[in-house]
Design a protein that fits this description.
Helix Hairpins; three-stranded mixed sheet; eight-stranded mixed sheet; alpha+beta; BirA Bifunctional Protein, domain 2; 425 residues; 12 helices
Length: 425
């Protein structure tokens, strides 16, 4: 969310930032809306001032026993004119607010300019993809052969893009989430939260999902929305607050179900668990001072990478180009894990800094000790990790020639010491 005063003062900077995202310059149309709003407000105030003067004159005439009918007619007419001016101001205000709410954040200067994922830059690769002595299978082939991954039954229970996990695979998904949370809380200093999976529209507006991405969400009949990511409730824990700067950074983590309609994903990843309507994810959120957010992004990304290192999964980290970043991000690192069955890297985490974009929408500020004024905080979010996709990566990287799965050592304590997953009988 942008401050129109800043846009008025910096129209070229604003338009140049949007151009990096492939968005045409909007400053002049926004400034014109603001001028319309301010003119109508000034007009309404002028009419009010004039009517107040008329009222005084009417009182004086009446006290002298003189005729005040003409002035009374002026006052009556001015009430209607003021109401019309106020309606114009309110309409312009609503139009301006809606326009500002649908404008994406501006990328930082060090973000590479590009159009789509083809312009993203790999900044590091960690781990060497394993060479198998057999043809590596994809996760859905492995899971179905084990008898523990059922897409047909899930489709009968719900619809496409759902899965039923059974036995050791269901336990492994739970184990992965517990492992991630233990690392993020015990090692990385995040506070575990168990937030609502249903939120109101204002909460989704604050983090930038509404109004622009309503079609990507699921809405209940009573007006609540299923969360697309725990970023939404975790970031909103400080919505509307004025925080003491000494309490920052605040770091939260949660494992939640996430729900997405995948409205724009027709034909993409139709088999398997890569892209589903319901999936589990461990999320990280940080609330920081403005000067600390750059370092916090590096720290958060390292926390996500550490999970993959502990699991022994090869990955690469990329900086996203301006055209491929999310709506609220100013800078994003994507982490992609190696999937032998696909012979490619696939996204498993995305860590972003949003600057004060979400804080402005949520009206969340901080105050330094002894200061009278406040300033907006910065917010960051990242997957630490997508649990279902991590399960996919474990299945594909730890598969054995006979179809069994070796359990990574760090997960064995969470799976009662199980070392190998055998086919389900």
């Amino acid at each position: 969310m942008f401050d129109i005063k800043w846009i008025v003062a910096n129209p070229d900077v604003f338009d140049q930032g949007l151009a990096k995202r492939g968005v045409d310059g909007l400053s002049q149309s926004l400034i014109q809306l603001d001028e319309t709003r301010r003119f109508a407000m000034t007009e309404a105030q002028s009419i009010q001032t004039e009517r107040n003067n008329f009222a005084k004159q009417i009182g004086m005439l009446k006290s002298k026993g003189e005729d005040a009918s003409e002035l009374i007619q002026h006052v009556s007419k001015s009430k209607q004119l003021q109401a019309e001016a106020e309606q114009k101001a309110e309409a312009a205000e609503a139009q301006l607010s809606m326009a500002l709410a649908e404008i994406p954040n501006l990328p930082y200067d060090d973000v590479p300019v590009g159009v789509d994922e083809n312009d993203n830059l790999v900044i590091r690769k960690v781990g060497t993809p394993k060479e198998f002595e057999f043809e590596a299978k994809q996760h859905f082939e492995i899971g179905e052969a084990l008898g523990m991954m059922d897409f047909d039954r899930a489709s009968k229970l719900a619809t496409a893009r759902f899965v039923v996990l059974k036995g050791a695979l269901a336990r492994m998904e739970r184990a992965l989430a517990a492992f991630m949370l233990d690392i993020h809380t015990g090692v990385n200093g995040y506070v575990e939260v168990n937030p609502p999976a249903l939120v109101n529209a204002q909460t989704l507006f604050g983090t930038g999902q509404l109004p622009k991405f309503a079609d990507d969400l699921f809405k209940t009949e009573d007006g609540l929305w299923l969360i697309p990511t725990a970023e939404v409730p975790l970031t909103s824990l400080v919505s509307g607050d004025i925080l003491d700067s000494s309490s920052l950074p605040k770091r939260y983590t949660a494992m939640t179900w996430c729900f997405r309609s995948e409205a724009g994903s027709a034909g993409r990843d139709t088999r398997g668990m890569i892209r589903q309507h319901q999936f589990s994810k461990v999320e990280m959120v940080s609330i920081t001072k403005p000067d600390d957010s750059d370092a916090e992004l590096e720290r958060m990304t390292a926390c996500a990478e550490d999970i993959l290192k502990r699991l022994g999964l090869p990955y690469q980290t990329m900086i996203l180009c301006s055209g491929d970043m999310g709506f609220g991000a100013r800078k994003t690192y994507d982490i992609e894990v190696w999937l032998p069955g696909q012979q490619k890297y696939r996204e498993i985490s995305s860590c972003s800094t949003c600057g004060d974009f979400q804080a402005r929408r949520m009206k969340t500020r901080m105050r330094e000790p002894g200061a009278k004024s406040t300033e907006f905080v910065h917010t960051l979010n990242g997957s630490g990790l997508a649990v279902g996709r991590t399960l996919i990566a474990v299945l594909e990287n730890y598969q054995m020639a006979d179809g069994r799965i070796e359990v990574p050592e760090v997960l064995r304590p969470y799976m009662a010491g199980l070392e190998v997953i055998e086919p389900f009988n």
